[in-house]
Specification:
CATH superfamily of one domain in chain B: MetI-like
Largest sheet of chain B: none
Order of helices and strands of chain B: HHHHHHHHHHHHHH
CATH class of chain A: Mainly Alpha
Radius of gyration of chain B: 25 Å
Oligomer: heterodimer
Strand content of chain B: under 5%
Structural class of chain A: mainly alpha
Shape of chain B: globular
Family (chain B): Belongs to the binding-protein-dependent transport system permease family.
Distance between the termini of chain A: 38 Å
Pfam families (chain B): BPD_transp_1
CATH class of one domain in chain B: Mainly Alpha
Largest interface: A-B, 120 and 111 residues
Keywords (chain B): Cell membrane, Membrane, Transmembrane, Transmembrane helix, Transport
Membrane topology (chain B): Multi-pass membrane protein
Number of domains of chain A: 1
Strand content of chain A: under 5%
CATH architecture of one domain in chain B: Orthogonal Bundle
Number of strands of chain A: 0
Order of helices and strands of chain A: HHHHHHHHHHHH
Number of helices of chain B: 14
Protein name (chain B): Sugar ABC transporter permease
Chain lengths: 308, 305
């Protein structure tokens, strides 16, 4: 298959690679370069300033806050989301066993119904979800507080997004709500490929449900859990957290910077405050955090690959 | 290959001992942890309620008038205020936003699939210097924070005169969809048999013709999966248009809704806003319920690499 091979390769790669280089690779390289300048983004003039932006960043309290919040997102969100998803997926696929005469392992009744419903939030735009929950959280007329009033808890009327100590958790809850279903379905697919004999063997040995989960299901599902962990962490550091915080919180990022995350801070510095160079500096920090996160998860999670 | 056989997870699960089941009703399930059973079923039901409630609440609210939205958020509408929906469609420009979104997503979806499959095919099937480098260049884009590139990208797009244009947005959507598309389709093209393409080639078909007439039709299942993935991602995209598309006339659906919510602060047409939200929500949910199996397969395929 040599005839005209290189002409074909070049012809087919030129358009996709060109587009990708122009709109993705080139801006990435540029932004690292800009982080060493004093570019405002408003005028084309700028000069090199060395590490000034980085020094400034290390003395910027809001940056540290945003870093703290982003790290919290990257740690707590995967833990809660994947934990819930594993629990639900195990219940749906393996939980309904011990039915005399039936298959050794089976899902609970209505398992396909659960899978369909849990997946709903995944197909909705995070922007729509955020708007919806912004209303639900409204302290006066929102759905949550009026539900609390309805069941007699008139004294428990939190300000939710208006309370600096609660706002960040409210935002995280929305992200959990919208991503759990995806992982339930993902893990269900993984669990379905685990051979039933393994469960039978565990069952014959008298394993309880919890033992079955920790000794059979989880080890065999580990690869999927790990890539899910990285995937969720990247979401929590990047686009998803931007949309949720930017749409839901006052400010956005408030009250009192209690919900500012790094990706939002980059956006605000570049497109609101006209400090494009400083914004790219924070962006570089975000890049470092993201890559470090992925590397740590891959390293910590490394174990012998189980073949089955 | 794993990615292509995920569509029917649970059903294909345990066919091992199913033969000897003489319909004994599951009456005799119990003992080990009845409490645990109640607890876990309770949790499953609770989560289902928590997922559905906000959505039903939004649908219900979109039929109410403003005073009852604020006065009693959980009461049923006194009558179905369809005028909310009409107002949202015309006055709040939801119709325009829909049209913009359809144009942008339509263009970029086709572009992504064509360009993505071309690049993936070459990378999967041809040995040439730099093949691995280009592949990792594409795949690396999946884990980088897009926001970092958006700051200079804004000015790149602006200098090319593409800012606030539909075709500019389409090109950017394609570029940012390529990493996953190339990653997924490269793996897919590798699984396809080489003999058919070779036969076509021996018969005198050119490389280009072999690709479009033989390989592309064979790759259809992969294209559908990655197409659904990209469709939802692009339809629901919020960050890219927020940065690159600031012209009110060119807004896409997600942007339009957020702007609408912001401007309600002084306009006060909350019922119209809810109608708009539900209007944007229902087509996607409906399509999901109809094509449930394909959507789930398309969205989970990538993560199960």
């Amino acid at each position: 298959m040599q005839h005209g091979k290189y002409r074909f390769i070049v012809g087919f790669l030129a358009a996709p690679l060109g587009l990708y280089a122009l709109f993705v690779v080139w801006p990435f390289i540029q932004s690292i370069y800009y982080s060493f300048t004093d570019w405002t983004g408003l005028s084309p003039e700028f000069k090199m300033v060395g590490f000034d932006n980085y020094t400034r960043m290390f003395h910027d309290d809001i940056f540290w806050k945003s870093l703290q919040h982003s790290l919290l997102f990257a740690l707590v969100l995967p833990l809660v989301t994947l934990g819930l998803a594993l629990f639900f997926a195990f219940m749906i696929n393996v939980g309904g066993r011990r039915r005399r005469g039936g298959p050794v392992i089976s899902g609970v009744r209505g398992s396909s119904f659960y899978k369909i419903v849990y997946f709903f939030p995944q197909v909705l735009s995070i922007a729509i979800v955020s708007l919806l929950f912004a209303f639900a959280y409204n302290p006066d007329s929102g759905a949550i507080n009026s539900l609390l009033r309805g069941i007699g808890l008139d004294t428990v009327q939190p300000l939710w997004l208006g309370d600096p100590s609660l706002a960040l958790w409210c935002v995280m809850a929305v992200l959990v709500w919208s991503t759990v279903g995806f992982f339930v379905v993902l893990f269900s697919a993984g669990m379905a490929s685990i051979p039933a004999e393994l469960y039978e063997a565990a069952l014959l040995d008298g394993a309880s449900r919890a033992t079955t989960f920790f000794r059979v299901t989880l080890p065999l599902l580990w690869d999927t859990v790990q890539s899910g962990w990285v995937y969720m962490g990247i979401l929590a550091l990047g686009a998803e957290s931007f949309a949720v915080v930017q749409i839901m919180t006052t400010g956005p990022g408030g009250p009192d910077y209690s919900t500012t995350v790094m990706v939002l801070y980059v956006y605000q510095k570049a497109f609101r405050d006209g400090q494009a160079a400083y914004a790219t500096t924070i962006g570089v920090a975000l890049l470092v955090v993201t890559l470090a996160f992925a590397a740590i998860v891959m390293r910590l999670g490394r174990r012998e690959r189980l073949e089955y | 290959m794993k990615t292509t056989e995920t569509p029917l997870p649970a059903e294909s699960g345990a066919p091992v001992v199913k033969i000897d089941v003489p319909a004994t009703r599951p009456a005799a399930r119990k003992k080990e942890g009845g409490v645990l059973n109640v607890f876990s079923h309770g949790m499953l039901i609770l989560w289902a309620v928590m997922v559905v409630m906000p959505l039903l609440w939004a649908v219900m609210t979109s039929f109410k008038d403003d005073s009852s939205i604020f006065g009693s958020p959980w009461s049923l509408p006194d009558k179905l205020h369809f005028d909310n929906w009409a107002r949202a469609w015309t006055d709040a420009n939801m119709g325009d936003y829909f049209l913009n979104t359809v144009l942008v997503v339509g263009g970029s979806l086709i572009g992504t699939l064509v360009l993505g499959s071309m690049a993936a095919y070459v990378l999967a099937r041809f040995d040439f210097p730099g093949n691995r480098f280009i592949y990792y260049l594409f795949v690396g884009g999946m884990s980088f924070p897009i926001m970092l590139a958006l700051v200079p990208l804004f000015y790149v797009v602006n200098n090319m005169g593409l800012l606030n244009t539909i075709h500019g947005l389409i090109l950017v959507y394609i570029a940012y969809s390529l990493p996953f598309t190339v990653f997924f389709l490269t793996a897919f093209f590798r699984t396809l048999p080489t003999s058919v393409a070779e036969a076509a080639f021996v018969d005198g078909a050119s490389h280009t013709r072999t690709f479009f007439q033989i390989m592309l039709p064979m790759a259809k299942p992969g294209l559908i999966s990655v197409g659904i993935f990209n469709f939802l991602g692009q339809w629901n995209q919020y960050m890219l248009p927020t940065v690159l598309n600031t012209d009110p006339d060119k807004r896409v659906l997600t942007q339009g809704l957020v702007q609408l919510a912001v401007s309600q602060g002084y306009k006060g047409d909350w019922s119209g806003l809810f109608a708009g939200l539900v209007m944007a929500m229902l087509p996607v949910l409906g399509a999901y319920i109809v094509f449930q199996r394909q959507v789930v397969a398309g969205l989970t395929a990538g993560a199960l690499k």
